[in-house]
Amino acid sequence: MQYEQLIQEQRKYFQEGNTRELFFRKENLEKLKQMLIEHEQDLCRAVHNDLRKPDMEVVSSELLTVIEEIDFHLKKLYEWTKTKGARANLLSLPSKNEVRRMPYGVVLIVGAWNYPVNLLLLPLVGAISGGNCAVLKPSELAPATSALLRKLIGTTFHQKYISVVEGGVDTNQKLLDQRFDKIFFTGSTRVGKIVMEKAAKHLTPVTLELGGKSPAVVHKDADIKTAARRITWGKFMNAGQTCIAPDFVYVHKDVESELRKEIKKSIKKYYGKNPKKSKDYGRMVNQGHYDRVVNLMSGAAILSGGSKDPAERYIEPTIVGNVDWGHPVMKEEIFGPVLPVVAYGDEEKPSDNLRPMSSPLAVYIFSESEAFIEDLITNVPHGGTCINDVVMQIVNPNLPFGGSGNSGMGQYHGEYSFECFTRPHAVMHRNTWPDPSFRYPPFGKKLFLLKKLFLR
Ligand code: NAD
Q: Does residue 349 share a domain with residue 248?
């Protein structure tokens, strides 16, 4: 079916009011949940085919997170959709005022490949809750998952309500040429700019969930063993291909060697002597990303790991050192299992060195010092912070998730997802009386009175 026709059908379905009923929204959230529960095995297999992800990671980060989000929306949706009263001010007296949340209409959700189920369906939960129709475009770089999602969504929902369009860059560009009422995009900063440019043509609002170099800052007062365990876990899951993975470690030089030793220990504990044989360790998604990450390492000192196998797109969990801010591995988002370690001394303020980096999605701070933590939160532009841990900030639906600057715009998760897919709509009720003549011409001395009343 042509995209125009699909979007027209969805817009008609939306305009008929089908998607706005609270009952309808809840019923379809339930259907999505059932789909995930019934097809857990199929989804695990598809994601494994695409990324060699272990079932534990697929279930926890791709399926349970979406199911949790659905349950949260089912519990809160009645409250969120209620019309909220607003106070009248002096100028609007007498009146009754309210704010309603209005769905946008037909929304486009474009996903990335690294969490191919989560990144498509988690925003979909918000789109359904908001009362919208949706076109979903999975990433072509996770083809098994893309095909399965098309099949599952196709049998769970009518296409005039929710539909999957498969394809790559060309398909996405054709979709972006259409007029949608809202676009939700997850992917790289480079493509985020293309999306925004295309959306501008139709003045379509966008939410952009992009990437960046998220630092893990480890201060000298940190619990080093715990920091090492958690950084290793967050960095090497999905072979480093996680948007909020700690990209590099920025550590106080007094604890640098201890931290490196502990990270090495954790790598061995999680993935064994030979991570290539570990069932719990992933692979680079394709040859292009494999080559890109291997090239990023050139010129850096390999402090641990470093072995690779292009035939399997395998890169061992690797720690690199001897890199300054100008080295390629410190300039672009690594998005692979390579962890640079950079040290700072007492004479340096980490926030001064991190501030010029282009606004990452997250900053992780391992420290017990409130002043140290506050300085980084306040003075380094970034999307969200997690203190003494990594990645965990995304599991709480009461927290907004999103970037700032180069890492994106707009937030989602929980109520922020509902807000992301609805807009606040003002309604003022006025009686036909009283109708004092004060605002109508002729104005005469009314301006004098107006100033007297308001400019005190
Ligand atoms: P990408 O930008 O290459 O692709 C994302 C989507 O855009 C895909 O569906 C793809 O088909 C489409 N696309 C690619 N090139 C395009 C073009 N020229 N014109 C129009 N559409 C195009 O990103 P990716 O490689 O799939 O994902 C990796 C990036 O995504 C990383 O930067 C990562 O940090 C980021 N990411 C962010 C989040 C988040 O929640 N903020 C989550 C996952 C990944």
A: yes
> Which residue in this structure is represented by tokens 């009011």?
17
pTM for the predicted model, two decimal places: 0.96
**The token pair that represents 126 in the structure block:** 């918000």
- The domain containing residue 239 runs over which residues? 215-398
- Write out the catalytic residue numbers: 209, 243
Ligand 1 site, residue 119, Cβ cutoff 6 A: yes
Contact in structure between 152 and 32 (CB atoms under 8 Å): no
C-alpha angle 111/8/129, rounded to 5°?
Answer: 50
Q: Are strands 362-366 and 338-344 parallel, antiparallel or unpaired?
A: unpaired
Based on the fold, state whether residues 275 and 144 are members of the same structural domain.
Answer: no
Strand, coil or helix: 101: strand
What pLDDT is recorded for position 64?
Answer: 97
* Pair 21, 164 in one domain: yes
Please choose from 139, 174, 207 the residue to mutate so as to test ligand 1's pocket, defined by most ligand atoms within 8 A of CB. 139
Write out the two tokens for 449: 């009175």
Residues 6+ apart with CB under 8 A from 134: 10, 106, 107, 108, 109, 124, 127, 128, 161, 162, 163
Classify residue 291: in a domain, yes or no: yes
Q: Hey, which of 69, 119, 165, 186 would you mutate to test ligand 1's pocket, going by the most ligand atoms within 8 Å of its Cβ? A: 186
How many structural domains is the chain composed of? 2
Residues whose CB falls within 8 Å of the CB of residue 404, separated by 6 or more in sequence, listed in order: 359, 381, 382, 383
pLDDT at 453 over 90: no
